[in-house]
Amino acid sequence: MKAVGFWTKGLPSSDERSLEDLQLADPAHPQGRDLLVRVHAVSVNPRDVKSRMSMDPSNGAPVVLGYDASGVVEAVGPEASLFKPGDEVYYAGVLNRQGANAELQRVDERIVGRKPATLDHATAAALPLTSLTAWEMLFDRLSLPPDGGAGESLLVIGGAGGVPTMAIQIARQLTHVTVVATASRSESEAWVRSMGAHHVINHFHPLPTQLEAIEALAPVTRIFSTHTTPKNWAEMAQVIAPQGRLGLIDDPEPLDLRLMKFKSVSMHWEAMFTRPMHATADMQRQHDILNTVADLIDNKTLVAPRVASYGTINAANLRRAHAALEDGHTVGKITLAGF
To answer: Sheet harboring 178-182: ordered strands across?
Structure first.
C-alpha cells in the first residue's frame, strides 16, 4: 500500500526526508475489535507536527502520521459489532499505532463513528480530533450540563482555532451557558461570532477589565484555555468564579497553581488520546460522541469547519501542509484526499 512517513525524526518540513512517499505491506486482517479502513481523506493538525519532531521509528518500521481520517470499512475483526464492510466512517486514531497517512489503516471500532452523510470524505476528515477534544473538555472534564448552564458563563481563550470553533458551537447549541470567546483580529472576531459566541474580547488586552465591561455578564464558572500564557493565567485566576472549573489542552510552561487555591478552582487536562491509548473502560464513548456529532452535522445544528484542500495524500503535499501549520497562518482545516 502507499503511505507517507519518515525514518528520521525532527527534520524541518523543507527537508524531503521529513516526510517521504513509502510503499508498505498491507496491514494484516483485523483482529479483536479492530476495523480495516480504506482511507479516502485526512486532515493535518498541529499534533502531526509535534509527532514529526518527537517520534522515533522503531522495530525497523517508519513512523506513519495522521490523526484525522475518513474512509470506508474494508474488513472487521471477529469481535467487532459496530460496523460492517462498506460502512463510511470517520475517526481520529491514536498516537501509538500507525497513522492515517496510508491507503489502509487498522483502528479500534470503539473510537470510530459513522461519517456524516451530508459531508464528503475530505470535510468529514476535518472533524474528529477537534470535535472529540471539544466535547470531552466541555462535558467530561468541565462538567458543563447538557441543556443546562443558565446563569453561568464559559470563557474560551483563543476562540478562532479548530478546537475552540467546535467548543463554541457545541456550548451555544447544546447548553444555556453564556459563551465569551477571545480573538485578536477582526476576521477572527467575525468567525468566532458566527460560530455562536455571545461576546468576544481580545486576549492581548486585560481580561478582567473587558469582562467587567460586559453588561450583566453571568459569573465565569468555566474557562477553556487553548493558549495559556503566564499573563492570562494570572488573569484567569482573577476572573473565574469560586469553585469554578478550568481546562487546558496546550503545553504551557510551569504554572503557579497556588493562584487558584482560595477559590477552590479545579484543574482539568484534556488529551483526546487518553481513552484509546489506555484502553479505558469507557473508550467506546468516543464512538458515541462521533455518532452524535455526525447527527448534529446532518441536522444542521453544527457546521463543519472551513476546509483548505492541499490535493492528494503524498509526501510533497503533506510537507507543504506541515510548513503551513508551522507558519501559523492557516485558514480552516487542511485536508488531503485520495492517493
So the answer is: 199-201, 178-182, 153-157, 220-225, 240-248, 266-269
Each residue's pLDDT tens digit, 186-243: 888 999 999 999 999 999 999 999 999 999 999 999 999 999 999 999 999 999 999 9
Helix, strand, or coil here: 328? coil
State the average pLDDT over residues 290-295: 98
CA distance 336 to 339: 9
- The rounded distance, in Å, linking the Cα atoms of 193 and 196 is 5
Q: What is the pTM of this model?
A: 0.95
* DSSP code for 28: P
C-alpha 189 chain-centroid distance: 20
Report the greatest alpha carbon distance in the chain. Answer: 62
CA nearest neighbour of 272 among 158, 178, 140: 140
Residue 10 grid coordinates = 525532527
179 and 156 Cβ atoms separated by less than 8 Å = yes
**190: enclosing H helix or E strand:** helix 186-194
Q: Read off the amino acid at residue 300.
A: K
CB atoms within 10 A of CB 76: 20
Give, in order, the Cα–Cα distances in Å from 311 to each of 23, 162, 236, 248.
19, 20, 41, 33
